[in-house]
Amino acid sequence: MAQMNMKEAIRDAMRVELKNDPNVIVFGEDVGKVGGVFRATEGLQGEFGEERVFDTPLAESAIAGMAVGMGIQGFRPVAEIQFVGFIYEALDQMFVQAARMRYRSGGRYNSPIVFRTPFGGGVKAAELHTDSLEGLAIQTPGIKVIVPSNPYDAKGLLVAAIRDNDPVFFMEHLNLYHAFRAEVPEEAYTVEIGKANIVREGADVTIIAYGLMVHTAVKAAEELEKSGVKAEVIDLRTLLPLDIETIVASIQKTNRAIVVQEAQKTSGAAAEIIAQINENAILHLEAPVLRVAGPDTVYPFAQVEDSWLPNVDRIVKAANQVLNF
Amino acid sequence: MSKLPYEVHSEPVTPLSVLSPEGEVINEAYMPNLTDEQLKEIMYRMVFTRTWDERAVNLGRQGRLGFYAPVSGQEASMVGSEYALNKDDFVCPGYRDMPQIVWHGLPLYQAFLYSRGHQHGGQVPEGVHVLMPQIIIGAQILHATGVAMAFKKKGEKRVAITYTGDGGSSEGDFYEGLNFAGAFKLPVIYVVQNNGYAITTPFAKQTAAQSIAHKALAAGVRGVQVDGMDVLAVIKAVSEAAERGRNGEGATLIEMITYRFRPHSMADDTSKYRTKDEEGEWGLKDPLTRFGKFLEKKGLWTEEDTARVKEEAKATVNENIKKAEATEKMTVGGLIDSMFETTPAHLEAQKADFQ
């Protein structure tokens, strides 16, 4: 089995699907010869040609809108939006047009599109390159939202997303692209969309996270263990559909939970998860479910980025709060 | 003022007309190649569309239709442009462009269902190549661009056509679509039906560009301007554009100068933003009158024919509105099930609340 970092695993997912299905097509800004600004598509144009993997003019709405048009003609576009902050330019096409194609055509057409975008902080990137905009996406009916946390999941989830007949917003954390290597099968395989993963078992408190925050949560769990607290860490993998069953089963065991997200605190994924916990597991709770999140400000320039982002200390503190409630 | 040698400029364009307002052929060289039967069919469709429009406005007032955008005045550009296509070409309409997709094959009762907010309205039958009317003014421009990209990649000799209005030509998506089509040399036709008003905002306040057709220059696609009240000119221009697309010569932007005789939608009061004189002047260019005179002179059409088609149209509209009204109402459960190919658990749970 090959050792791959997350970026290589993502590239490999596109490679195996370009190979498997002639309708898969990859496009976006700079994805061709150079292989994208993060080299996530490096080598794909060389292997599959300009017909299958190509650069577009610089226009996010048109990238997303062209994907919608190609989708209704049988292609399976994998469209890259170069940085997450640029999706605002494409919101209508992604969240309105692609996401409601199945509904407004009474099931006649669909949008088998993957919108890939890098996101996530801690890398000292420029303004609007790192924000966590998954909250916008999960508020949108008709689009699935995936945030992988490791190379194996990233490849399996992306293969599943490319094969999915509904639009998928696939968010790749910048800080995970090169963070570590892991074993990744070279053949095509899928990781089920909508199925969370328990990455660390525990009986005292459940820490729910996704993307980079899974790793911060695991570090926090290790820290908590020093004081005898066994934290269970759930990697959600997908935010929509949300695997509430796994969350509830964990809370039935631990009776306490916190949710960690990089995004600003108000009305995001964590708020939704807590609402669903209330709907499904309120009688199992011994304490309110707390959020560890970024403050409700614009995402900052590089200077205060590290203290802005949720860290181990804040997660440990929140866990102790619910433990001592 | 003389132009600077380094200044980019363009020259005025003259819209293509084939017929004078009196129905005389004034540009024989641009007469599309059509048989007498085809000419009569085009007139049939325009009269049918006018009658349907009149009925639809009344049905709207009676509460039997929902959202409806009147089309009278624009029959030449709508009916003519669709007539110039092949059945396997793909139509991406703007919100007013129901006639094109019906003449392209969408059953009329589904048009009424769409208007009434029923999702089956958009369940386009297999073999009919249309999207439903688009509400976001420029979004369909990009869908047509993507459809054209698909045709090009598959090596199919088909074209995509999309419509917007003069207001739509101010949208960012309009520029992005044109630019993509130029860069990728796509088989797509962008029709701007310039009817002089974006709801109530007059064209003079819409753009300072010399014309909408000129906007093609910047994108490197072909731009033409057509007398949109002259169905033969419309057919000529769209046929040419389609042929160019099929031959790999790329996209065409067609500005059709037209007019809507009625309000933008069922709600606005035209007297607040238009004059009677203006409406009267455009009335003289009525596409049905002009083409009707041409056909009468050729002995192909009479007033009796118009009366007969009107009756036929009324009966067909009645039959189809009844069919729409008799169609089982959509349900919240059905709506929920149309969000994803397989309804996820959280939506199954939400569905249970409505059963």
Automatic annotation (TrEMBL), chain A:
Transketolase-like pyrimidine-binding domain mapped to chain residues: 4-179
Organism whose genome encodes this protein: Paenibacillus rhizovicinus
Cofactor: thiamine diphosphate
Signal peptide feature range: none
SMART domains according to UniProt: Transket_pyr
One Gene Ontology term of the molecular function aspect: oxidoreductase activity
Record-linked Gene3D superfamilies: 3.40.50.920, 3.40.50.970
One Pfam assignment: Transket_pyr
Keywords: Oxidoreductase, Thiamine pyrophosphate
NCBIfam families: PRK09212.1 (NF006667)
PANTHER family per UniProt: PYRUVATE DEHYDROGENASE E1 COMPONENT BETA SUBUNIT, PYRUVATE DEHYDROGENASE E1 COMPONENT SUBUNIT BETA
SUPFAM superfamilies per the UniProt record, alphabetical: Thiamin diphosphate-binding fold (THDP-binding), TK C-terminal domain-like
Protein known as: Alpha-ketoacid dehydrogenase subunit beta
Keyword Oxidoreductase attached: yes
UniProtKB/TrEMBL annotation, chain B:
Positions of the Dehydrogenase E1 component domain: 45-330
Keyword Flavoprotein: no
InterPro entries listed in its UniProt record: Alpha-ketoacid_DH_E1_comp, DH_E1, PdhA/BkdA, THDP-binding
Annotated catalysed reactions: N(6)-[(R)-lipoyl]-L-lysyl-[protein] + pyruvate + H(+) = N(6)-[(R)-S(8)-acetyldihydrolipoyl]-L-lysyl-[protein] + CO2
Annotated keywords: Oxidoreductase, Pyruvate, Thiamine pyrophosphate
Known EC number: 1.2.4.1
GO molecular function terms listed in the Swiss-Prot or TrEMBL record: pyruvate dehydrogenase (acetyl-transferring) activity
A GO BP annotation: branched-chain amino acid catabolic process
Broadest EC class assigned to this enzyme: oxidoreductase
Pfam families named in the record: E1_dh (PF00676)
Xref: SUPFAM superfamilies: Thiamin diphosphate-binding fold (THDP-binding) (SSF52518)
Cofactor requirement: thiamine diphosphate
Quaternary structure note: Heterodimer of an alpha and a beta chain.
PANTHER family assigned: 2-OXOISOVALERATE DEHYDROGENASE SUBUNIT ALPHA, MITOCHONDRIAL
Protein's job: The pyruvate dehydrogenase complex catalyzes the overall conversion of pyruvate to acetyl-CoA and CO(2). It contains multiple copies of three enzymatic components: pyruvate dehydrogenase (E1), dihydrolipoamide acetyltransferase (E2) and lipoamide dehydrogenase (E3).
Protein name: Pyruvate dehydrogenase E1 component subunit alpha
Organism field: Paenibacillus rhizovicinus
Gene name for this UniProt entry: pdhA
